[in-house]
Structures are given as C-alpha cells and as structure tokens.
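U., I forgot to send this yesterday:
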Amino acid sequence: MIVSKSDVYNTLTELIVVSEEDGYVYIFNFATGKEFETNETGKEILDLCHNRQVIEIAEILAKNHGMDQDIVLKDVKLFIEEALKETLVKKVEKNE
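Result:
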C-alpha cells in the first residue's frame, strides 16, 4: 500500500504490547501472534499515530531531532508501510 503524506493512521493499541530492552523495541501483535522489532524512532512514530496525518508526524520528528523534514517524511512513510503489513496501524478513512 502506498502511504500518502495526507493519510491519517492510528496505532492498533488494543492489539499490541510494546517492550523495550537494550535499546531495541519489541512489539507483539496478539492478533497475528507475530513479534516486530524496531528502534526508538519506530516507537515514536507509533506513539504519534493517533489521528495525525503522516506529514504532521514527520514535522514533529524533524523538529524534535533537528533533521530535514523531507528525509524524515520518506522514512515515516516507509515505516508506516511496514507497520501496515504487520497490522500495527490502521488507516483512518475519511468517513470514520
């Protein structure tokens, strides 16, 4: 699925549990029985996926980390694409 900068996503918090150990973030999805490994930035993206547009998430991360917004936007889109595959986030449809 192609992620647009204007798309809005929500983390499926009712289906996942997050744990951190030695600088790694592990996310277990109860619905799929799979574990997903990411880093602190991935966790930040998931934490920010609550009725925000992808571009808003990128703006926040770029500001917080002093990075170029366009580069961050590309990374956020890629991460959300992966999170969709792993059923960690859900796209919010306009009529929801």
